[in-house]
What we know:
Order of helices and strands: EEEHEEHEHHHHEHEHE
Bound molecules: adenosine-5'-diphosphate, magnesium ion
CATH class: Alpha Beta
Distance between the termini: 46 Å
Strand content: 25-35%
Radius of gyration: 17 Å
Oligomer: single chain
CATH topology: Rossmann fold
Amino acid sequence: MEFDAIKIEVENLTLSYGKRVVFENLSFDIFPRSITALVGPSGIGKSSFLKILNQMIREEEGLHVEGKVLLHNKGLSVDILKLKECELPSLRKKVLYVAQHPDLLPLSIYDNVAFGLRLQGIGKNDINNRIEMSLRDVFLWDEVKERLHVKADILSGGQQQRLILARALAMRPDVLLLDEPTASLNEELSLKIEDLLISLKQKMTIVMISHFKEQVKRVADVIFEMRLPS
Length: 230
Ligand SMILES: Nc1ncnc2c1ncn2[C@@H]1O[C@H](COP(=O)(O)OP(=O)(O)O)[C@@H](O)[C@H]1O
Ligand SMILES: [Mg+2]
């Protein structure tokens, strides 16, 4: 399947809330067909960084972002910090953030995945195919195929975490931002999700936050460590 190989260049990125600086002058490159892992202590700004990449964070009050985040795609480069409001939906179609804590809609398992697909005008057969494929990808299909139309909130924490990953995959993003994607999974499932990510990187740019050192060693091509100023 065709996909857009997106490279992201972060240049002197500084984030502050009010007078408090969270991080300052971050500069690094994020490459397509690879997994970049972000590591560092709690509160250092890892989640905030991912949310800057799809511009979810621009909506927050008292917040200041400086620097550049250049997104290179098909010979074109844009600074995502300079995008207009009306350009954000197309950014967020390419660059998808998967939250650490499942942010499910109060809908069925099926509709949680179908929701974004319908908004994109995707037809019913294609939606059904994508739902089955993405639920299989995250090893959830066999657990839910008999009850796709029950409320998603009856699922366990680990099932919900796989469901929000499936929801993202069904959208076929070019850049996948993962915030602790295996935090509520047991070891066996975590290893399966790691293998999934390694196979997905052939057609995506992946940035993930993980505090599991062994996991980072196993899956990351590049590790970017965020440190407290010394
Ligand atoms: N909306 C907000 N307003 C003020 N401070 C915030 C807001 N969101 C996050 N922060 C602060 O920014 C810092 C970085 O948070 P976060 O990005 O969640 O860190 P991490 O993911 O590395 O644990 C924390 O000190 C957090 O309290
Ligand atoms: Mg976080």
